Amino acid sequence: MTKLEQLYEGKAKKVFKTDDENLYIVDYKDDATAFNGEKKGTIAGKGVINNIMSNHMFQLLEKQGVPTHFVEQLSERETVVKKVSIVPLEVIIRNISAGSFAKRYGVNEGIVFEQPTIEFSYKNDDLGDPLINDYHAMALKLATADEIETIKKMAFKVNEVMKAYFDTLNVTLVDFKLEFGKTTDGTIILADEISPDTCRLWDKDTGEKLDKDRFRRDLGNVEEAYQEILRRLTGK
Ligand code: ADP
Ligand code: UDP
């Protein structure tokens, strides 16, 4: 596997071509942003943790029948993934009210829902990733009706697997964001990352936040929270 030219540098990762036209290499950075890039910083060691955690979650999900882009971890920060065309939707599942949901609807954080919710944001930095519904996504040709159905089913399945798994680690899975992509043959698979950057994770006993909210809200002990999640996942 040879790493070729960089295709893209995002806020948290770089993406490289490889000598295999169906594979990319992602390289996780320590850079952190919040509020559509208004707040910027670094979280020491985050790239390593997010790489290991994403790969850990993708392998768990594959075992439970969810297809993902994961191929092989190359180094602390680098992983080989299947090249996909990203469906430009941020798919957000919530089990408990928090963040933009609590703000938008004027409710407290911490309300446990009887059923998980799903919502989509249009992945478009210039527009600030606006909330979008299925019909808007179809009108904008971001995905077909069938693709949206597949994505919803997969996202709820991911939630069931992850919720049960985090429960065994004494962690409450509050909410998270997923991205899906299409392989060259049109199959929808789970892509991007699953990490404390993209999930809200609360300690089950104390409610302590073990995710990027520590950075967003200047709560301190940011690095420690990421390390604690890694420790619970891998014992290291
Ligand atoms: P952002 O683009 O939001 O700043 P990142 O820094 O995480 O986010 O950049 C990684 C980019 O790579 C994202 O745009 C993501 O959608 C894209 N991506 C993730 N997995 C794949 C994949 N398997 N194939 C192609 N692109 C991918
Ligand atoms: N999220 C994400 N990327 C985004 C927006 C949200 O990974 O661009 C995650 C976020 O970490 C949280 C969930 O999606 O776990 C729901 O986020 P919310 O809509 O509450 O937005 P926030 O207030 O976190 O920006």
UniProtKB/TrEMBL annotation:
Q: Name one GO biological process term.
A: cobalamin biosynthetic process
Q: Which GO terms describe its molecular function?
A: ATP binding; phosphoribosylaminoimidazolesuccinocarboxamide synthase activity
Catalytic activity annotated for this protein? 5-amino-1-(5-phospho-D-ribosyl)imidazole-4-carboxylate + L-aspartate + ATP = (2S)-2-[5-amino-1-(5-phospho-beta-D-ribosyl)imidazole-4-carboxamido]succinate + ADP + phosphate + 2 H(+)
Q: Where is the signal peptide?
A: none
Top enzyme class: ligase
Q: Which Pfam families match?
A: SAICAR_synt (PF01259)
Top-level taxon in the UniProt lineage: Bacteria
Q: SAICAR synthetase/ADE2 N-terminal domain location, by residue?
A: 6-232
Q: Which UniProt keywords apply?
A: ATP-binding, Ligase, Nucleotide-binding, Purine biosynthesis
Pathway stated in the Swiss-Prot or TrEMBL entry: Purine metabolism; IMP biosynthesis via de novo pathway; 5-amino-1-(5-phospho-D-ribosyl)imidazole-4-carboxamide from 5-amino-1-(5-phospho-D-ribosyl)imidazole-4-carboxylate: step 1/2
The family database entries (PANTHER family) matched by this protein are listed as: MULTIFUNCTIONAL PROTEIN ADE2, SI:DKEY-6E2.2
Fetch the HAMAP family from UniProt: SAICAR_synth
The record's comment on protein family reads: Belongs to the SAICAR synthetase family.
- Official protein name in the record: Phosphoribosylaminoimidazole-succinocarboxamide synthase
Say which species the protein is native to: Candidatus Butyricicoccus avistercoris
Gene symbol here is purC
